[in-house]
Amino acid sequence: MIIFAAIQIVLSQLPNFHELSLLSLVAAIMSITYSSIGLALSIAKIAGGGHVRTTLTGVTVGVDVSGTEKIWRTFQSLGDIAFAYSYSNVLIEIQDTLKSSPPENKVMKKATSIGVSTTTLFYMLCGMLGYAAFGNEAPGNFLTGFGFYDPFWLIDIGNICIAIHLIGAYQVFAQPIFQFFENYIRNRYPENGFIHSERIINIPIIGKFPFSPFRLVWRTLYVIITSLVAMIFPFFNDFLGLIGALSFWPLTVYFPVEMYKKQAQISKFSKTGIWLNTLSSACLVVSILAACGSVQGLVQALAHYKPFKVS
User: Fold this and answer.
1) What b/e sequence results for 58-69 when a residue is b if at least 16 CB atoms lie within 10 Å of its CB, and e otherwise?
2) Is residue 311 part of a domain?
3) Is 309 within the bounds of a domain?
4) Domain that holds residue 143
5) Fewest C-beta in 10 Å: which of 11, 226, 245, 293?
6) What is the model's pTM?
7) Rg of the chain over CA atoms, in angstroms?
8) Which among 227, 236, 232 is positioned nearest to 2, based on CA atoms?
9) 219-262 pLDDT per residue, tens
């Protein structure tokens, strides 16, 4: 995690979102690669036989978990799914990097359709084949279930792909935060030399690079703080679920729906308006349930919590 943070400190010095196209492409390729490795290993495990306990409704109440625990886990899983589709908070930044011909909105609509369809296909395959391979003992982290499964080198490659993917994903989500904060500070303190100073420096291989002392200090501190939080509270799935629950309804559903209604001048009591409001309300309920499940999971994890220890 310290090595990961060191890499992020370097990459965070990229001045803006437009410099991330290559990194984003590599991250996407890595995502498809480790998912494909997991699917291939699942198929091999299924084909190899061996009995795993599976049921139509998942883990069995009274055997694997209590009824209450299963409900909480179901709510947590909703948060994980919501997080998996939480790309909407970087949608505008991505669209802003596109050329104006053809129109950005048409390109973005096509890209979103392909991206969501591809993502859903891989998620469903990993979920179904992973459950068929591991049954009710399926791990939260897909590839960890193959820890003692030959070939070991293939699992290592999968884990390397995950690390590279997360390196790119961190930047894709962090860069909009960097831009927002820096624009706010620069507008707030227009005469501050430290905040506004920037000069071009020559870096071997890379070439000319815009260097800003303010950007170096504040982005480095941001990476260090987020990395420390991740080390202190290593509750991966629960935190993912909570973040997904808190961001899913407002960013992925409510604001886009309200903007569309305003732009298309859709009446609140029209047929389309009623259906959109129903969709928004249903997603709000999902977000609330997911948040409750994730908080319960965090509370449960804290009962056995030791700082800087993997849960």
Assistant:
1) bbeeeeebeeee
2) no
3) no
4) 2-302
5) 226
6) 0.75
7) 22
8) 227
9) 999 999 999 888 887 666 677 778 778 888 888 889 889 988 99
